[in-house]
């Protein structure tokens, strides 16, 4: 690590953060306010409802918090030397992204009479946008600096808002859990960016890209936190209580069958039948990604099936597809977001199309039909039309996100933004004052070997 | 570890899991559905209530999730070399058990017109059943394979459902927190099984059955998660809001006094006054087990007393009873479930009998009597009768569970099910692809000693 | 560690705990009961409301639990050799303090007709009192015994109750999040005590007062748990739903801008631009402390500003103020509570005075004014009067707490209470049966150096 570069990090990161934070404060002071008292105090009926609606989402809001900050943070801390890089940089990017998304979404959706009325809902909305930046960053975990990730978030959030609007308001997609708008979008955005940031040297592997038993365990704990609260994530945007109830139950079922399947597949693909921690940390969540798009529409058996298929595909993706893509199209994907968000997302979308085409409308009459109940009664609605719209939304999202990812990757490569040297990839020491602990992870195997009498592997 | 055996693990675990998961999917597709729309949409009053009832338990449902997957998983990760075995195998068995319990309970309780109507409640119900399998597995932690534990769960869940029905519907036990139906049942089932799986070599201790400071700290964190959400566990089945309120407060009080007592007793039994982590990890929860059966019935002072007594007994159990039973009746109990679930469960049941006999009915008149308020007004109810039924339910449960445990243990010993060699007990390497970390736990003290100039103990 | 002293620990800790627990049980049996059934069953309207009110706080109650037991416990486990000392002793003192506070507050506030009616609310109230003891203990973390900390809590809780009453009922402070009554009080109480317990030898640093990468990561995880649930803490005492809504949103905003600012400032003050874990673990929470006093009153932009300023001050405090005070006034503050609770608390209080003076009453008329909406319409209320009362409450609290801290420190120094030798500071081995793990933290760098061929620092 050269002194020049660390000096530039010291300049860039604080300056960038303070400028952005200053700008956010200015924008909030100028344009954001709580609702004017008279708008909700004069008419007591409205008050009660409005107040209740917003506070009612508070528990789900906290669940999403646990997922973003504790769950995802821990899950990303799986690398031996990059634990702080996982949890702390996630903490930073999440906070930047949420504030930035509140600004962008505020002006895009809620700007009236030169004011933006802020309620708890806006933060939740912003957190869904922030998720996309955090997922995309997973593709380049440990080989990009926080400065580059701030840039990533600054560009991805506005594009997400536009694509989210397209998918929901233009294509009227049925997608309660954001499988297309969040998972597919962030995955292909991240992969596009990652391809531009291709590092030839990583093809032979990187000596620091390993885990420890402790980092793997904490990462699995992060996965389990995500797993526990995924039903909240997939159900928070439900249109009514019955849809929410179905979304919760179906998400749980998909996660549960996915987890069992992950254990089975992971054991099956290892020649000694052992389970891979990387598989567990990721594929046990694939069911939640895949079922998101149809969680309020399908039957319990369908949810179990989708979870099973998604986790199977995810495990096989880690085992076979990722190495294949790395070799063939030079796609480097540190966290395997393609296996966890891309493949299960596509499977889920295809599943939703099948469900929409097969769901027997005539059984109950249109007003009791689960899909139409969610949509509201539209006379012109047809299964086939909806199926086409689901497919179109998927295609458009992949196109938009790949394009955005490529542009973002090009900008992130600009030499003016601090980026780490290859030997400092996956290493906290560049960004954090790490403790000098004897049992720590910063003693390389090579260094230690010099002090041992027998080869380390024999120990 | 011989190649033959690992080959058999590779065959057995995935095949077993995929067959079971396939069967669950088939059964769910054939027999499980959400409630028909017309049953809740036609009558708007019913809708509201039904929907609310189910979503109202969602927060408690999440609490139980945290307990099962994060709390119990971490708590079981206390062994030096068996961290993944604690948290990940718990994750697997929990998921298998919940799906399996949904099937068994579905057919046992909810099967009408060839359909089972699924609601969130069913999953919660299934999670209570799953808990029993997870507790019982604690008795043989680290010396049974996941294949054997799947068998354990497959057999224990149906027996739990039958015993639970007996205890609640036949004996009309007052037991809001499942002290008898869950804790006593799972404890004696596990102990019965453990006795059959007796390993003479373990009597001298096992070199891998140790902890590290980090594994002990994570295990204590798991305990604390269980501790935090135990009031939810004990109050989720309350009949009305007042009973639920009392159950929450009393469970908290019992846990709190139990924790203080654990510190005191643990310090007292050590000759240098130091506190044992094993005591903390377990005995601080004993109050929650013991108070479960009477959490909605007793006074705050009673709750404090029960917690204090239960944790005292639990600490003394770890210190004196477990070594005694290990020597005398060859009872090996890796997690000490007898001290945490058995002894406090019996104490709690005796406590509930005392409370039922002493509760002064005449004070308020029968309609305001806490117990009768919970039961509904039954003319024929007598304190003495209820006390006998509590005792009978305890006795029957111990008998049924011990019997079931013996049978299960015999089946688990069949050579066709994969079981680990003694030298691979308490070792993740048999089941997981563990990272080769230098600071890791897989360097044995013995091996390391060879490379050091002074005895390790002197360092 | 001499045998004499450990013997005295063995005597003192269990005896003290058992005596207190016995006394609590006796007091609870004599004076505490749930509300008499007739008081809530006879009038059905009252029932519903009362019952709902209490169970409605249950989710917030659990959030505070997670903060106290998991969040704060983990956060305090940052020391290399004192992980159990962080999480387990916090667990003990929290439990003691809650029970003790229930007794003190019960007699102070709720004692009627020789009875104290217990509801969930009382426990929550007691937990707020307990927080003060836990924060104060942070100033002397690792250099006081549990016996001394029990004494600390025994003395601090009653003084907190009195000061809390003064601040709220006498000065009518507007302080929804307890910035003055909790944070300022506990900080200056702890600092006063710490000054009396001044250890000259610590001025040169202590070889055991270091962290490991793992302990730092777990501590950061604790911070993140506190961060996630801080909005619950600051909003639980809100007078109405709109105030609660504002408090939640504003607390989140202050935490978020504070976190971004912490990253910026921490990088800025390091000559290589690296971020300090100690800064992250603390300063990212400073916004929550500072915004507490005005969380229900200010605008979103104001919340962002306060969070930014508070975290900036907190980071600079750790970097410059703490070393300065340690040298000049011999103030030893192990956890930096002055930077996290004192300085941000004062900033927040000044901020609240500014807000109260500037808030334009005339805009909406007094009945719609946020502050008056919270207070209820008081004819005699003036901005200036309230501002003076805020300032007076701050001054009185600092005085009372410093005085209480000095007295408590003097009593804690009495030789009859067990206190550790200096060489045993920050070391679990004195209080816990620590595992003998090879990778453990109990191998000192010095010892290890003897077995290595090159200087450890060069590795």
Could you walk me through the main structural features you see in this protein, from its secondary elements to its overall organization?
The structure is a homotrimer of 459-residue chains. Chain A has 459 residues and is an all-alpha fold. Helix content of chain A is 68%, strand content 2%. Chain A is built from 17 helices and 3 strands. The first copy, chain A, has helices at 3-31, 37-41, 44-56, 58-75, 83-109, 120-138, 146-170, 179-196, 213-235, 241-269, 277-283, 286-291, 300-328, 337-358, 370-375, 383-412, 445-449; strands at residues 32-33, 111-112, 115-117. In chain A, strands 1-3-2 form a 3-stranded mixed sheet. In chain A, helix 4 runs parallel beside helix 6 and helix 13 (300-328) crosses helix 14 (337-358). The model of chain A is unreliable at 1-7, 38-52, 362-368, 438-445 and 447-459 (pLDDT under 50). Chains A and C meet through helix 1, strand 1, helix 2, helix 3 and helix 4 of A and helix 9, helix 10 and helix 13 of C.
